[in-house]
Amino acid sequence: MVVGQKVALGRVHAGKTVTIHVTDTELAIACDDGIRTVRRTTDQPVRNLKASRPRKVALNV
What we know:
The protein is mainly beta. The protein has strands at residues 19-22, 26-31, 34-39.
């Protein structure tokens, strides 16, 4: 989720880190297979410049 907008990239990119450049009208998402451009549907401002890192799953053995 970016600036209140959910973006689906598919299962191929699940768990991977992507870079997103936000402008007033679009989101440019840099993935392994190139840059994808998505039109923004919200007008919320960006609040966090760095998102939290992915959480690791604890294994209970």
